[in-house]
Write a structure and sequence with these properties.
about 475 residues; 13 helices; alpha/beta; 8-stranded parallel beta barrel; globular; two-stranded antiparallel ribbon
């Protein structure tokens, strides 16, 4: 059977983190776009955010009303200088000083500005002038912060698309496109010297659009799947997010910058789209975002960066109804303008007490979401349904052991015998159900599992279970 090498560390870290998770989830952020004409007042949004476990907000600009509304909330704020600001910031240090004086000084520290992003996806914009002006612009903003003694408190960086990579598969072979390397090396030297992050926009959704096989969807949505094997590291990846982030890590490492922090500036999944769009649905959006949050809360990290969750900004807080393009571009919002949830992924503080999130079943065709049924009120165990193939059980086993400590079914463990896929999968599936929140949706496994009131323990092999 196949186990992820860091499964044991995962459970220890997740149990340790569970004590703190409801109070502090500084790695969960959200993008607050404003290309819309129906957004609620910033003060209402600030109140909404304080009812959630979202600890950071990324703005694409520096709207004073939003920045002021977040004062004294403790929420970290990322503000942005637009691509159009780059020429002025690059050519004139006074322009940069005026920008900082206008967009930072009046609000900090009451408004907890933590990062300034200069430009968005400039390196892949095709604008050579903008690309060469990017580093001077970043440096001038940093110098302007230094001049007011904020250089060590507010970081400066820029945001990149995944297209900066020439190669991303397997993750250990991640490398930057040769045409970007010279400028990226200079930017990374700045990141490394100032402690600012390398910000990236990974979207498994777009990967699925270009390869819409069912197994790719499962891989993108953190669902049970056969995984993808990296022959250079002997690591089996069970989700696209980790693979994409580790590809960036490998690319940074190949250039000598493995210690530069990676921040996920954007990632998300649309909940609806046009008839000819592949992938958008409420179920898929809920599965991706919900399972991503559960993955971050676990503190498992990625295979190449275990034990720490990458700061991740979900896209997006609200729909932006004025955005051009297909319908999916206007359907990424986690909340509606009336402040209600588009779908529930466990962000509310009132409902969040453990590091778990539903693992919603995903289908290729949008289906009507099913409301979660109540938790069982008696002893229950998650077991495989009858007639499930060994191939599917192996997939369930790999997935479960990537998210829970499967030591009892390893050689010498109390549940190693009988050494069969069916027996090991049954133990692992129940273990994940018991440790992930013990909700009915935690015992789904693409509709191959069911809850049972019969304790499957045998001899010295004890299956975790009990009343909820």
């Amino acid at each position: 059977m196949t186990m992820l090498r860091f499964a044991t560390a995962f459970v220890f870290l997740s149990l340790l983190h569970a004590v703190k998770v409801a109070k502090c989830q500084s790695f969960i952020g959200v993008n607050y776009g404003q290309v819309a004409d129906n957004l609620p007042p910033p003060t209402d949004t600030a109140k909404l955010l304080q009812t959630t476990s979202i600890q950071k907000v990324r703005l694409y600009g520096s709207d004073p009303a939003i920045i002021k509304s977040l004062a004294n909330t403790g929420i970290g704020i990322v503000i942005g200088a637009s691509n159009g600001d780059i020429p002025g910031l690059a050519s004139d240090p006074n322009f940069a000083k005026n920008w900082v004086n206008s967009n930072v000084i009046p609000y900090y520290p009451a408004s907890n500005i933590i990062l300034i992003t200069v430009g968005n996806e400039v390196m892949t914009s095709g604008d050579q002038n903008l690309m060469t002006q990017l580093l001077p612009a970043v440096q001038n903003v940093h110098n302007a912060l230094d001049a007011v003694s904020l250089g060590g408190k507010i970081k400066v960086s820029t945001v990149h698309s995944m297209a900066v990579l020439r190669q991303s598969e397997p993750p250990s072979s991640g490398s930057f496109h040769p045409s970007f390397i010279e400028q990226l090396k200079l930017l990374l030297s700045f990141n490394n010297a100032t402690g600012s992050p390398f910000a990236i926009n990974p979207y498994p959704y777009f990967a699925y659009r270009s390869d819409n096989r069912p197994e790719t969807l499962d891989f993108c949505l953190f669902q049970p799947n056969a995984g993808r094997f990296d022959p250079n590291t002997n690591i089996k990846y069970t989700n696209m997010f980790d693979a994409q982030v580790d590809a960036i890590h490998s690319a940074l490492n190949s250039m000598g910058f493995k210690n530069v922090e990676i921040v996920v500036a954007e990632t998300g999944w649309p909940y609806k789209g046009d008839a000819n769009e592949v992938g958008p649905s409420v179920e898929n959006a809920k599965a991706y975002n919900g399972n991503l949050i559960a993955h971050l809360r676990s503190m498992a990290g990625t295979p190449l960066m275990p034990g720490k969750s990458v700061d991740t900004y979900l896209f997006a807080l609200y729909d932006e109804d004025l955005k051009p393009g297909p319908s999916s571009e206007r359907a990424f919002g986690l909340f509606k303008p009336d402040l209600t949830m588009t779908y529930d992924i466990g962000l509310s503080k009132s409902s969040q007490s453990t590091p778990s999130t539903p693992t919603a079943p995903a289908t290729q065709k949008p289906a009507t979401p099913v409301s979660p049924s109540p938790k069982p009120n008696k002893g229950s165990w998650c077991v495989p349904k009858q007639g499930i193939s060994n191939t599917q059980l192996q997939s369930n086993l790999d997935y479960a052991c990537g998210h829970a400590d499967c030591k009892p079914i390893q050689p010498g463990g109390a549940c190693f015998e009988p050494n069969t896929v069916a027996s090991h999968a049954a133990y692992a599936m129940n273990l994940l159900y018991q440790t992930a929140g013990r909700n009915p949706w935690n015992c789904d496994f693409s509709q191959t599992a069911t809850l049972s009131s019969n304790n499957p323990s045998y001899n010295n092999c004890v299956y975790p279970g009990g009343s909820t």
